[in-house]
Amino acid sequence: MIIKKITVIFLLLNFVFINSSYSQKDSDVDRIVLKYPKHFSSTEDLAERIQKDFTSEHDKARAIYSWIAFNVKYDYAVYLNPPRTQGFSYSTEAEKQRKIQQINDKLIEKSFSSQKAVCEGFTALYQHLSGLVGLKSEIIRGDSKIRLADIGRKKLSSNHAWNIVLIDKKWRLIDVTWGQGYYDNSKGKMVNDFTSIYFDTDPEYFFAKHFPDSGSYLGNRLSKEDFLNGPLIYNKTIEGDYKIKAPDSGIVEAKYGDKITFEIKNVSKSDLLFYLNKKNQPVKIQNSKAKRGGIEFDITYDKNISDYITIYLDTFSIVSFKIIPK
Question: Regarding the domain delimited by 20-230, which CATH topology (the fold level of the hierarchy) does it fall under?
Fold first, then answer.
């Protein structure tokens, strides 16, 4: 449970894309943080260690992200059976804020000591540690898009939370919950798999999978329809910078015999691309042609294609669309 709903109108935020120099710095930070103890006696001790080892705002923010992602695991049991909302009474606004802070402090301590949390614990811990090392961070609550069924979903829901952190006078997007791993449907459990892609993420990718309750960013109103009706992208899409140019909607209307045109950036004709038919058999894409730094190809819609079509690069999902028969 996130105690205090924070509505942020992002008016003058700027974003700097991750470049090669930052990537190298991030790797250096990660290697140092990997040598840290898995347990510290207090958040203050961890913050002191980070302050000792790093001086720049970027490196401190990255060190917090990496330590949490390396050491705090997603508590799937709590996700399945969330605790009841904790209520309290108060007589003054000061008493109300004091009790909210006490509950939030308890959440942070539990997440830190047990090293298990859901998104509320991850974000509260990230914000807390940021403050201890002199960084400003906020918690953003909103919707997330992670399943095929989310494509074309009718309603937004507040089901996730993430952080923004101020680095060198620019707000950066952080989702340390997703940085630590993912849920594997085939195994029926959480898989610990550190990824750096949710630290200082390109907004184009971030907001394909996140929609803030405030509904705005960079001074522009985000479109709920674009979010809900957009294609579903995956971690490998972000890692490889595989921008999806066509179709421009995640919902494709077609009748049997129609050719659906796809365009993906930063993929070459020599890459192995395929999709699965209704029998879960791979169908290799063989008609691709180079186009503007990527490839373009057609898939003919027929009875062997199911309600969703997912494009794979090698063994990794890249993008999924929902197919609606005309």
Answer: C8orf32 fold (3.10.620)
| CA atoms of 287 and 119, how far apart (whole Å) | 42
C-beta pairs of 36-41 under 8 Å, 24+ apart in sequence? 36/67, 38/70, 38/71, 38/115, 39/71, 39/115
pTM: 0.88
Q: What is the residue extent of each domain of the chain? A: 20-230, 244-325
Are 206 and 238 within 8 A, CB to CB? no
CA pair distance 219, 222, nearest whole angstrom:
9
Please measure the distance between the N-terminal and C-terminal CA atoms of the chain and give it in whole angstroms. 43
Which alpha helices (H) appear in the chain, and where do they start and end?
Answer: 20-34, 43-53, 57-71, 76-80, 93-114, 119-132, 176-179, 203-209, 224-229, 235-239
CATH number of 244-325: 2.60.40.1930
* Per-residue pLDDT reduced to its tens digit, 69-127: 999 999 877 777 777 766 766 677 776 677 667 777 899 999 999 999 999 999 999 99
CA distances from 32 to 21, 50, 95, 302 (A): 17, 10, 42, 53
